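hey m, so remember when u said the tokens were messed up on ur end? i reran from scratch. heres the input so u can diff it against urs
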Amino acid sequence: SPQLRTSERARLHFALGLIHDRNRQYDEAFRCYSEGNALRRLDFNRDAHREYIDLIINTFNSAFLSSAERARNASEVPVFIVGMPRSGTSLTEQILASHPDIFGAGELPNIIHITEWLSKATGQAGYPLFVPHLTQQQIDDAAQQYLDYLATLTPYAARVVDKMPGNFMHLGLIDLLFPGARVIHCTRNPVDTCLSCYFQDFSRSHPYAFDQTILGEFYKTYQVVM
């Protein structure tokens, strides 16, 4: 129908792709997913992303991490599940949350909000540029802000799981804020992971996932960070 909006056509292509895939009509499925992705395609600055990755790696080098201040509250409550989308993070959280002392909090945006707050507090232009300028008090306050929020979700759980996959970008900061936390890195076959991302209608999120080449490049930078 010519009356369908582009976003509606994209959704239909992804839905048709799923139907064909379940019926083992793989060529038709891939064609539908490709058309859906072409309609969804968002701008993704590959050069800026690579510069961002290099900045993270250069900031959290071994010399810095060996001497940097950590939060004085080494709470063991937070558990961070990280990795690429579609790598098994949701299943891992479900397995953990079946334990009576563990609460699954889902994908929390709090770490991203903390980076924004710390950027303003230090007067530095964004993550990770502000990290070398952090004071002990700012580290303690940011960590406590996150822990206080977890307590509003469940005051009694021994562990609370934050399964925001993209927190793999923030593991250096997480190490400073939560020295007692556990980190679980979910991995899956790279082709399976990227194919699953390409077949997923992410709508406005994950702008790297709508083009096969860019998706492959993003996966490689994720591997470098980890």
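this time it looks ok to me. The chain is about 55% helix and 5% strand. if urs says something different then somethings off w ur setup not the seq
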